[in-house]
Amino acid sequence: MMQLLVIKEQIKQFYQKTSVYVNPFVKFITALVVFLLINQQLGFNPKLNSLPIVLILSTFCAFTPSVVLVLLAMAVSIGHILAISKILAILVAIIFLIIYCFFTKFTPDFGHVILAIPILYFLKIPYCVPILLGLISTPIAIIPVACGVSVYFLICVIRDLTSSTLGTSMEDILNLVRMVIDNWLRDPNMLFAIFVFCAIVIVTYIIRKQEFDYAFETSIVAGATVNVLGFLIGNIGFDIQVNLLAVVLGTLGSAIVVYVVWFFRLTLDHTAIEKIQFEDDDYYYYVKAVPKIKVTAPEKNVKKINEKKETS
Amino acid sequence: MLNEKKIHVMAKLSMMEKNKEQFEIKDYYMGDYIRFYLLKTVIRVTIGYVLVLLLTAFYNAELLINSAVVLDYKRIGINALLIYVLLLFCYTIGSLIRYHHKYKRAQRYVSRYEKGLGILRRFYQNDSEHK
Fold first, then answer.
1. Most exposed residue of A309, B68, B87, B115, measured as fewest CB within 10 angstroms of its CB?
2. Is residue B89 part of a domain?
3. What residues make up the domain containing A71?
């Protein structure tokens, strides 16, 4: 355990020295993964599918605030849908606006969750988001979680419906819109997934707040258990279509990811070096504030013991 | 000659100044601050509700076109208005509580900052007395 703590502090030391380069690099990789996954799942617009466009957008996201990635991801998704149906694109844009107007303003710090859940669903580990939010946030996080799940299922509905040929008459357009909204809002899989994810957030939060040893670890296990049991009950009792093996493996993967994130607790605000400057009547001051490292890596001292050579 | 304690205070204040959101309250009394954000909430909820009504109308377009002359528009209008008022009431109460807490938290933060400014002012006064 001590060795792990030392590794954690070494990573923090490395991050302190190189955060100026690491931050844009991590943001670039994240944006690249996001746009590639969106192109893989939707991919109706050949211009947006091209690698140079993806690289340009990812590079732009690397040097801008992270909210830009969320907005660009939404724009790219709408761009793909626009390639097959203008009406569907307008519908999706209106739905995003409704989500923004009613829900995101109450949890502005968790706007990324609405993007993270669909992306992690595509990577088969969406369950780490509600478990992590239960650890670091309050039950109000169920709002962005519910929005994230519904955005994922909306994308799935559009992807599945648009695989069939689309008519251009008014009647075909109205039928398409009605089918999308019906399949989305009345999808029992989506409603049940929202319910289970909200339960995970609440259970994880309640256990995390208890005052006993290993409360955080217990809350991660509890959140994972609620997830597996929830989908098992849904599959058996409510005919929810879900691959239980995928759920179990995804839950295991998510729990490991959450544990690693929690253990390292790499909060960028508290690890990165801060640079400030100010002046008074006599001097200009350029100050670098470096957060203190709490566990020092042990220094290796190699001591050689030679046998005494006996001289006759 | 450098005064390390003064530099320490100045550095702390400079880092506090980076959190610009907390200093927003300096431009408002609490009532004005809450009223400003309540107005934003009302506008946002209204826009969102209009979009929901638009989607609902589009979803039921065929029914609306076929039954245009027989629909009870008065009852539909009253129901829509009641839902809007209820929604607005819930969001207004939520915003009131949230921004009240936010203002109080920011007030404590600004108060800590101004305490630091007072300490810095004393350093300057001591410096000018010694000169």
1. A309
2. yes
3. 1-83
